Amino acid sequence: MIRQTLAAAVPVLLSVVLLSCGGSGSPQGAALIPNIAGAWEFQAASNGNTTSFTGVEVALKEGQTLINGVQQPNGQISAAGASQISVVSVDLANATVVFGGNCPVTGSGGNSLSGSLQSLGGPITFTYSENGNTFDVTASLSGDGKSITGTYTSSGACSDSGTITGTALPKLTGTYVGQFTLPDGASDSVTVTLSENSSSVLTANLLGSTSNFTLSGPVTGNAFSAQGTFQGQQVTYEGYFGVQVIDPVSQLPVTGIYFVNATNSAQPAYAGTLIPPST
Questions:
Q1: Cα 117 → chain centroid
Q2: What CA–CA distances, in Å, run from 81 to 58, 59, 86, 99, 102?
Q3: For residues 212 and 183, what is the distance between their CA atoms, to the nearest angstrom?
Q4: What is the pLDDT of residue 24?
Q5: Residue 190 has pLDDT above 80, yes or no
Q6: Which overall architecture, per CATH, does domain 38-168 show?
Q7: Residue 54: which of 108, 135, 110, 126 has the closest Cα?
Q8: 174-274, which class in CATH?
Q9: How far apart are CA 93 and CA 223, in angstroms?
Q10: Any idea what the Cα angle at residue 275 is, between residues 183 and 222, rounded to 5°?
Q11: Adjacency order of strands within the sheet including 253-261
C-alpha cells in the first residue's frame, strides 16, 4: 500500500518541479512582450477635420533583449529615415493624396517614431514626428497584436489633437488597372502588377498598349517610392494604397492605388488612380 502511494505521488512531484522551473527551453516571461515589428499604417484623424486623415506609414522596428541565451522582443519600437517612415495626407472627399503630409517643416524637419509597449492588450505609447513636428500618442494594443487605437496631441506649428488607429499590413501585391499618365505626358490604359519581397522592396510592372516599364523601390506601410527607366530616362513615382474610389463598371467603392510622378520633386504630377480589375 505504501509503495503504491509513493508511486502515484512521483508524477505529481515532477509536474510541480517542471512548473516551478517555467518549463523546458522557454524563458519565463518571454511571451509577455509581443513582437509587432513589420509594416503598419497609423491613421491620425483630427478632431477639427472630418474630411481627411494623416497616414503615418511605417516599417516598424522593435528592439531585442537576450534572455537565457534567446533573443526576445523588448517592447522598444522605432522607425527613422525614408526607408522606415513616411507621411501622407489623404483627402477623403476628393480621393487625393499629398505625399509628405501637410505640416510645415520645423527645425531640422524629418520623420521618425519611437515608443514602448508592454503586452498584448496592454498600453502602448509613442511619439512620431511629421516634418519635425512632434505628436504624442497614448493608445492600447489589441489582444492579437494587429491593431492599435488611441489618441494623439501636438503643439507648435502643427498644433492638433484627435484619434489614431494603427493596423498591421500585409505585403502589397495584386493587379490594378486604369488610365495612367506616362512620363512623357501621354495617357495610356495600363495594367500594373505589384509584388513585395521579404525586404519590403516593391516591384511594379506597368504594361500598356504603348508602354512597358518597371518601377522598384522601398515600401513603408501603404506608401512607396519607386524608380525605373522610361525611354532611356530615369523616373520616380510615389504611390499610396488606400484611396477609396468608385469602380466605373460595378459602381461600388473599391480601394485603389494613387500614383504621382515625382521625377521633378519640386513639381509632382498626378499620374492616375488604379483599381482592381472588375469581375
A1: 17
A2: 10, 10, 8, 15, 18
A3: 12
A4: 36
A5: yes
A6: Beta Barrel (2.40)
A7: 135
A8: mainly beta
A9: 20
A10: 80
A11: 174-181, 187-196, 201-208, 212-220, 223-230, 233-246, 253-261, 269-274
Domain boundaries defined on the chain: 38-168, 174-274
Pairwise CA distance, residues 180 & 207, whole Å: 10
Cell numbers describing residue 2: 505504501
Q: Rounded to whole angstroms, how far apart are CA atoms 276 and 181?
A: 18
Nearest residue to 138 via CA among 155, 158, 152, 154: 152
Quick one: cell of 178? Answer: 486604369
Report residue 201 CA to chain centroid gap.
13
Q: How far is CA 61 from CA 37, 58, 75, 134, in A?
A: 5, 9, 10, 19
Cα dist from 267 to 65, 180, 260, whole Å: 45, 18, 10
Same CATH topology for 38-168 and 174-274: the answer is yes
Q: Over the stretch 199-245, which tens digit does the pLDDT of each residue have?
A: 999 999 999 998 899 999 999 999 999 999 999 999 999 999 999 99
User: How sure is the predictor about 107, in pLDDT bands with cuts at 50, 70 and 90?
Assistant: confident
Write out the H or E segment, with its range, that includes residue 24: none
* Cβ neighbours of 151 (radius 10 Å): 14
Which helix (DSSP H) or strand (DSSP E) does residue 191 occupy?
Answer: strand 187-196
Place of cell 522605432: 78
Rounded CA gap, 118 and 259, in Å? 38
Residues comprising the chain, all counted:
279
CA dist 111 and 131 (Å) reads 6
